[in-house]
Amino acid sequence: MLKTMQNALTWAGMARDVEKNVRSCLICTKNKHPTVKYGKLPEKTVVTRPWFEVAIDSIGPYGKQKFGVYTMVDTTTRLVERQAVADASSDETAYLFDRLWLCRYPRPGRSYGITAESTTTRNPQASSIIERLHRHARKIEQVRKNNLRENAGRRAWAYQPGDRILLKRDGNINSKLTTLYDGPYTVLAVRDNGTLVIDKGRYTETVHIPRVVPYKDQRGEDCELPDKTQRGDSRKQTTA
Q1: pLDDT, tens digit, 9 for 90 and up, residues 41-94
Q2: Are 166 and 181 within 8 A, CB to CB?
Q3: Where do the Integrase zinc-binding domain residues begin and end (predicted)?
Q4: Does the predicted model carry a pTM greater than 0.70?
Q5: Measured between alpha carbons, how far is 144 from 138 in angstroms, rounded to an integer?
């Protein structure tokens, strides 16, 4: 820019004036990617006394009713109180803090003249404890939605010890002529975390339920067999 202007113009201190104008240009500042980050993060004070400081934040909205959740945490003892609310106003926040916290627990050290220290959005460093708690709550909601989406295309089935199942092969070792499943294997145990313990002959293996399917025996019966009473009634009718 300076050399282009010098082809037609010149004055005393031209280089200094051009540099000053470019540095103060608002349009240039808005469109330039900054190479330096300004502003040091403040040091975090560590509070070692219980009931001295309480962090409050809200999360939401959730559901069709668009309700929110208020979270209150004692930053030292990590005591947590959560309450679902339909109104996210400051008056409701003050009322819930008084009813759920001040009326039940010792008052904070900064009591009778509590000053609110507001923080900005997208600033988890300012209240790291409560933001970490909300991060965990959001993760639980995300896992729940993923499970609902995964289960939407799956059939309800309750495995029992002794059932026979087929185990799906790993996708990266399949070839054109190999089968999609191995087995059948016998179920030894059913765990609450969505896994099965199966007998593979010389050893046992824990597998995830999405990798297995119930085994249909050679009689051609459906996987989901009727209960014993129904099977007994059908046999009597056949005999008759």
Answers
A1: 555 566 667 777 788 888 878 878 888 888 888 878 888 888 888 887 888 888
A2: yes
A3: 1-33
A4: no
A5: 10
